[in-house]
Amino acid sequence: MSLHKAVTGCTDPADAGRTQDLGQAAVVRYEWCGVCVVGASGSYDMSSITPLSEALGEAAREHPKVVLDASRIAFADSSLLNLLILTQRAVDLRVAAPTQQLRRLLDITGVDALLKVRATVEEAATC
């Protein structure tokens, strides 16, 4: 899937991911409180990480702060952890509203100590 297809350019956070299937990885990009938000939904592993990687990379090149809305991530493995660490090195990355599975993965691996994890997109964007 190309970045063009993966990123819809939603401008209303309420619309982000509204029609996305939680099993299939999908990415949307929108602005919230003047901050670039990349919304991810579905499952992320080595075979599905590319659209999210491209979207975060593009956002990092264009903005000083990027929020990853992780509230719709159904599954994540080390591919996502690696992407988050690399993105954090390039930009002020905030991870907002991680799902229980992702929060547990971040906690078990200790990556939560490296990242700025916040409860909501609004909190991540304004802090």
Keywords:
globular, 127 residues, 36% helix, 5 helices, alpha/beta, 29% strand, five-stranded mixed beta sheet
Q: Helical element count?
A: 5
**Residue windows where pLDDT falls under 50 for at least 5 positions:** 1-22
How would you describe the shape? Answer: globular
Helix content: 25-40%
Rg result: 13 Å
Strand order of the largest sheet: 1-2-3-4-5
* Approximate strand percentage: 25-35%
Largest sheet: 5 strands, mixed
Q: N-to-C terminal Cα separation, in Å?
A: 33 Å
> What is the tally of beta strands?
5
Q: Strand pairing plus helix content: what structural class? A: alpha/beta
Average predicted local confidence, pLDDT? 86
Order of SSEs: HEEHEHEHEH
Describe the structure.
The protein has 127 residues and is of the alpha/beta class. It is globular, with a radius of gyration of 13 Å. A hairpin with a 2-residue loop joins strand 1 (26-32) and strand 2. It has helices spanning 3-6, 50-62, 78-90, 100-109, 121-126, and strands at residues 26-32, 35-44, 65-76, 92-96, 116-118.
